[in-house]
Every structure is written in structure tokens, then in C-alpha cells.
Specification:
This protein is of the alpha+beta class and 187 residues long. It has one domain: Double Stranded RNA Binding Domain (2-Layer Sandwich), CATH 3.30.160. It has 4 helices and 4 strands. A 4-stranded mixed beta sheet has the order 1-2-3-4, with helices on one face. A hairpin with a 5-residue loop joins strand 2 and strand 3. Helix 3 packs across helix 4. The longest helix has 33 residues.
Length: 187
């Protein structure tokens, strides 16, 4: 291929890419930035601050709720509620690494959440969804005299709490992103 043919081929590729970009432009212009303003013109951050996040039972549920409240308000006082967010969580531990003795050395902490976003003006569920978080943790293998595994080691308890916190953060981020995407296009 001569250099002239190579230049013409490059020009054709550039023109094809420009044509594709021009065809995609109308579809892309309909997209709104996630944390810009909503369809009504209100700032999405202000609409998110109006979420009333109901109590979630348990330590991990409270952790998910706190993560959502802080991400919605930034630590400021919540705005007047326009939406209510109901969340239920389910936790599960699965042994992943099992020694020949039958003792688990590694575990997987799973947190599954279901949520409903309710518009308070008419008490209608406007969005439902799920979010899941997984976090692995290692268990310490310390044997007591007689070959029995020591129970309730601080390192095991701390590893479990850290895994719960990581999974709660992932679940809260997933819920926040889904709600923000929904509210940016409808609120």
C-alpha cells in the first residue's frame, strides 16, 4: 500500500467516526448528568436531601442507613421530605476455605437489600430494586490445648465487623446510584 492510499484510508476512518458521532449525538443529548439538575430544574442534591430513610433493624442495617443519610445530606440537616425510602436487608455467611480439620479459615459475608422509594404526595411506590454487597474475611486459626479452636477471638470479630461495613457501603452506594438516576430523570 502506498503512502497516498494509507492517507486516504485514514481519512475514510476519521470520516466514518465523525459520521457515527453525529448519528449518536441526538441520543446522547437526552442523557442528563447524574448529579446535575433534575427534569424540573431542581438540583439533584436538594431532591436527594429530601429522602426520609426509614429505620433498618440491626447493626448492619443501621450502617446502610447512615451511609445513605450522609451521602444524601452531606452531614447537613435533612430537607423537607418528599420521598420515603424503605429498605430491608438479609445477611448470610458462607465458609469458603475449609481446612482438613473441618474448621473454616475464610468466609464470605453477603448482604442483600431490597428497597422501595415511595412518593409521599400520593403514597405511591415509584421505584423498587435490589442491591447486593459481598466481602471476604479470614479467620484466625489458633488452637487451644487439646486441639480445639479458640472461640471468639478479637481478630475474628473485627474481621467480621470490617466485612459487614464494606458490604454495607457497597449496598448503600448501589441504592444511592439507582435512586439518583431515577430522580434525575423524573423529579
Amino acid at each position: 500500500m502506498s503512502s497516498r492510499e494509507g492517507i486516504q484510508a485514514s481519512r475514510r476512518r476519521v470520516l466514518a467516526l465523525l459520521g457515527a458521532a453525529l448519528l449518536a449525538a441526538p441520543a446522547l443529548s437526552a442523557c442528563q448528568p447524574l448529579y446535575g439538575s433534575t427534569r424540573s430544574g431542581a438540583r439533584l442534591q436538594d431532591v436527594m436531601a429530601g429522602l426520609d430513610i426509614t429505620e433498618i433493624p440491626g447493626r448492619v442495617g443501621q450502617r446502610v442507613r447512615n451511609e445513605l443519610i450522609f451521602s444524601a445530606t452531606g452531614g447537613a440537616r435533612p430537607a423537607a421530605s418528599t420521598y420515603r425510602l424503605d429498605i430491608s436487608v438479609r445477611e448470610k455467611i458462607t465458609d469458603t476455605l475449609v481446612a482438613r480439620t473441618g474448621n473454616a479459615q475464610g468466609q464470605l459475608y453477603s448482604l442483600d437489600a431490597r428497597f422501595k422509594l415511595v412518593r409521599l404526595a400520593d403514597n405511591k411506590v415509584v421505584l423498587e430494586g435490589r442491591s447486593a454487597g459481598r466481602a471476604s474475611l479470614d479467620r484466625t486459626s489458633i488452637l487451644q490445648p487439646g486441639g480445639k479452636r479458640a472461640r471468639f477471638l478479637f481478630s475474628d470479630v473485627r474481621a467480621r465487623i470490617d466485612a459487614e461495613n464494606r458490604a454495607a457501603r457497597v449496598v448503600a452506594d448501589g441504592i444511592k446510584t439507582r435512586i439518583a438516576a431515577f430522580l434525575s430523570s423524573t423529579a
